[in-house]
From TrEMBL:
CDD domains assigned: SET_SMYD (cd20071)
Upper lineage: Eukaryota, Fungi, Dikarya, Ascomycota, Pezizomycotina
UniProt keyword terms in alphabetical order: Signal
Protein name per its UniProtKB record: SET domain-containing protein
InterPro entries (UniProt xref): SET_dom, SET_dom_sf, SET_domain_protein, TPR-like_helical_dom_sf
Domain SET: 19-172
Origin superkingdom: Eukaryota
Length: 324
């Protein structure tokens, strides 16, 4: 306890330990309402916040013609809201919301608060009032995952973040052009002016389209079954080269949340041509990221398995080489 309290607000007159300080602070962000800012320099993988939902409802089943049955969502949200303490209700009602021009003035405030701020969490949709203050960027420096066992959303730094820098996540899929992203963001009621939307828009669009296509194209080319024909081997060698370009491209575009996915492709593409050294190095880089994201995820476990396998194959090759 004393170690924790030394680092926090230990007050000898009032011996109440408030726990370690938060690594972020909430304050106004230019043109975006409130935002969340780093209170310290953060390294990749550092946890920014862990939060348990105050309201959690089952994700609505997709019904033909009414893909998002909002009336049912509102009903469930209201039921949960009524069961909250007055403080928790106040925290929910203080959140920002956006209504579209076509929505009537009688719009249910709680419903639109939920729509503007909620996140998918496994099979549910949840309201997390602390996380709800994080603004969007199309080149975010943070990401998050849902821990079902702990009923907790975990937000972590996906890039290095300097003290004072605003923390950002993405509200939408990022492998879209500027125009496509803006269409998806319209329901939040803002025009995105993040660095990806403001600078080198065409270059960024081209990169994102190429990355999206590469992710799809590689999907069917990641089997580790032995290659039998010369054509298949030639194709695999070309793929290994192309996978290096993919890894470079996601990094050039600064899409940290896709690095691990690209590194996995690069690793497997090299393993397919038995080029074990790069296969092991890329797999290990992917594993490191997946582990930082969520050490217990199936992605992390798969990357652990691949990394061990590729390192063992690399060692084997070196052993065979030295014995001949
Ligand atoms: C989930 S809330 C984020 C926190 C919010 N800024 C607040 O004050 O509570 C989403 C809303 O924040 C604003 N917002 C988020 N990202 C933004 C951005 N990149 N540019 C401008 N406004 C943004 C929009 O009003 C959006 O509807």
């Amino acid at each position: 306890i004393s170690a924790t309290c030394k680092a926090s607000s230990w007050q000898p007159q009032h011996p109440v330990c408030t726990g370690p300080p938060e690594v972020y602070e909430v304050r106004p962000s230019n043109g975006k309402g409130l935002g969340v800012f780093a209170a310290y320099d953060l390294e990749i993988g550092d946890i920014v916040m862990r939060e348990t939902p105050v309201i959690k409802i089952p994700r609505p089943t997709v019904v033909k013609k009414d893909p998002y049955p909002m009336s049912e969502v509102y009903r469930l949200v209201l039921k949960e809201f009524e069961a909250l303490s007055p403080d928790a209700q106040e925290a929910v009602l203080s959140l920002t919301y956006h209504t579209s021009a076509t929505e009537s003035e009688t719009i249910n405030e709680l419903g639109v608060i939920f729509r503007t701020n909620a996140y998918n969490t496994g099979n549910n949709i949840s309201l997390l009032p602390k996380m709800a203050r994080i603004n969007h960027s199309c080149r975010p420096n943070s990401d998050y995952y849902w821990n079902e066992k702990l009923n907790t959303q975990v937000v972590y730094a996906s890039r290095k973040i300097k003290k004072g820098e605003e923390l950002s996540v993405s509200y939408i899929s990022l492998l879209l052009t500027h125009q496509e992203r803006q269409k998806d963001l319209d329901r939040y009621g803002f025009t995105c002016s993040c660095e990806a939307c403001n600078q080198e828009r065409e270059v960024s669009d081209d990169r994102r389209i190429t990355i999206r296509k590469a992710f799809t194209d590689f999907e069917s080319q990641l089997s580790l079954e032995p290659l039998t024909s010369e054509t298949a081997k030639r194709q695999a060698r070309n793929n290994a080269k192309a996978s290096l370009q993919l890894a470079e491209l996601v990094q050039e575009e600064g899409l940290a949340i896709y690095y691990a996915r690209a590194f996995r492709i690069t690793a497997i593409s090299h393993a397919r041509v038995e080029d074990w050294e790069p296969a092991a190095i890329w797999a290990s880089r992917g594993y490191e990221l997946r582990y930082m994201e969520d050490p217990e995820s199936t992605n992390a476990q798969e990357m652990h398995h691949l990394t061990s396998f590729f390192i063992a194959s690399w060692e084997n090759t070196l052993r065979n080489r030295s014995s001949t």
